[in-house]
Q: What sequence folds into this?
């Protein structure tokens, strides 16, 4: 069934019938209790609801969780859109049915974080402690309003949308990553070719062995990439400091249509923008402090111009001063793809 064939009221009715069948007492509970329940719903009830919704939407019968997951592997974007938009009211919270599609620790739900800032601080602490555990010499960084890219779903004025949430510093860093790939390809044209071991069987999978061919300039290419990687790390830290100091308290809201999927990007300037946005009132809080998208475009253009100038200067320096016969020591990695790992790729 196509998403266009069902109105929002039809989807609501389908979900309501599924919930009543799985949890007869659900609608007799206060909303606060329903909210707590659906964020930690037992697996059995969750399966029964999705089983009934699948039957109503697509006429598909499944008897087990494994069967349901197998069916969904064959779904296209439109089927996922219809399924996700129907289920959202049982997954999200607040006036937008906001759902954060990210992993949370056992026993932790979205209700443990009132604002995006609360979530970002907690995630920052987790990431920093993980780095410290891996490398005892690592110096813990202070929180400066960084929000790693995360994904969500919500209803905006009654319409379902996928959402991306990210801090401005990280959004600009991601844009510069793409810029670097394009500019480095322009400066040193290259391609990837199969290595001699590609496709060989090993450890229950197959070796993924590709090597870069830059027409004899492979050492220069590696050096330029290495320098740009350091540039990106320094740039991200610089942007975090800059926007933390400015405290602009803006959210840049960009609507996009990705094929059939309605999508909104929420780009938070700094922690002064993360702290006032509550999960239960997500879109209205974002709209209240929304910034001009043209301002965001100006930031992107400014940083891209600086990155291109940096790469051109480094390329010139490498051509004049870099000795390609001096090979830095780097740990050689071996990539083994498990059988079936590429099945879902287009």
A:
């Amino acid at each position: 069934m196509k998403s266009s064939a069902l109105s929002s009221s039809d989807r609501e009715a389908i979900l309501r019938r599924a919930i009543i069948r799985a949890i007869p007492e659900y609608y007799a509970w206060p909303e606060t209790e329903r909210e707590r329940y659906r964020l930690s719903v037992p697996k059995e009830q969750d399966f029964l609801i999705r089983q009934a919704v699948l039957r109503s939407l697509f006429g598909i019968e499944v008897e087990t969780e494994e069967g349901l997951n197998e069916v969904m592997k064959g779904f296209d974007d439109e089927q996922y859109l219809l399924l996700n938009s129907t289920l959202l009211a049982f997954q999200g919270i607040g006036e937008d049915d906001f759902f954060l599609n990210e992993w949370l620790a056992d026993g932790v739900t979205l209700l443990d974080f009132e604002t995006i800032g609360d979530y970002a601080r907690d995630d920052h602490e987790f990431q920093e402690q993980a780095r410290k555990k891996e490398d005892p010499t690592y110096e813990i960084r202070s929180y400066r309003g960084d929000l790693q890219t995360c994904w969500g779903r919500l209803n905006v004025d009654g319409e379902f949308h996928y959402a991306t949430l990210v801090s401005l510093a990280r959004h600009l860093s991601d844009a510069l990553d793409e810029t670097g790939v394009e500019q480095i390809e322009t400066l040193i044209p290259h391609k990837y070719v199969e290595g001699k071991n590609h496709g060989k069987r090993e450890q229950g999978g197959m070796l993924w062995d590709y090597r870069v061919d830059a027409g004899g300039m492979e050492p220069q290419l590696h050096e330029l990439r290495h320098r740009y990687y350091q540039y990106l790390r320094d740039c991200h830290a610089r942007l975090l400091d800059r926007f933390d100091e400015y405290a602009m308290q803006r959210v840049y809201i960009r609507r996009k249509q990705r094929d059939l999927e309605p999508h909104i990007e929420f780009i938070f300037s700094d922690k002064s923008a993360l702290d006032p946005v509550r999960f239960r009132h997500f879109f209205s809080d974002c709209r209240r402090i929304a910034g001009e998208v043209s301002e965001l475009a100006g930031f992107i253009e400014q940083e891209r111009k600086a990155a291109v100038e940096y790469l051109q200067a480094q390329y010139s320096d490498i051509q004049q001063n870099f000795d390609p016969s001096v090979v830095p020591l780097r740990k050689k990695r071996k990539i083994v793809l498990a059988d079936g790992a590429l099945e879902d790729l287009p």
